[in-house]
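As a warm-up, study this chain.
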Amino acid sequence: MHWTEFPILLSGIAWTITYVALVYRGFKDKSYGIPLVPLALNFAWETTFSIIYPPQESNGIITTINAVWMVCDIGIITTYFLYAFKYFKKNYQLTYSTWVMITLIAFIISFGIMITGGNFFAQFELYFRNSIFEGAKFIAFIQNLVISICFILMYWERQSSEGQSFTIAWTKWLGTSMTVGLYYLFIDHKGELTSLIAIFIISTFLLDTYYMQLIYKHLKAEGINPWTRL
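Now compare it with the structure written out below.
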């Protein structure tokens, strides 16, 4: 493994810990830890770019990581279907059938975006080298920003640590901004696209840092040690 692939491997490990912790907390708290929109986008991205369009630019590390994440997503999706409806009913007064329909639409749209998005961006050779996975990486930076926003909104909505932990918060922060974010800016940058993606990376970093503070303070207020809660 070349040294430049180490940040990617570290990101894979960090996000895998995040996913495992999300599954554990979901079953433990009878809750779910990823809001619907990022959950659908994540599952679609990781399925598309591990099975449908596996990346050709690596020695298999990225494909393996994506496949591991896809499997972890199935566990998180299970907690969503077991425990999410009560939140949608309480907060939005949705019926069960409406909730199921919205959920299915979210997943269908997400797969549509991923399956067509990589191909769309790949046509711009100057920025994406005619590579579907280069387009996928661009989508991922936008997606990570959406995830960070949605996690904060979920906390504000619940005002509790249900389905969440500081472990989830700091590993998500490490797996995004402090690994693949820095990797892109200093190793894999794309010239004119760097400034745009830097905005996504810096914004995600700031939001994830804020989210870590929110969860840490909330757990301390509940009398829970943030560092020992998976």
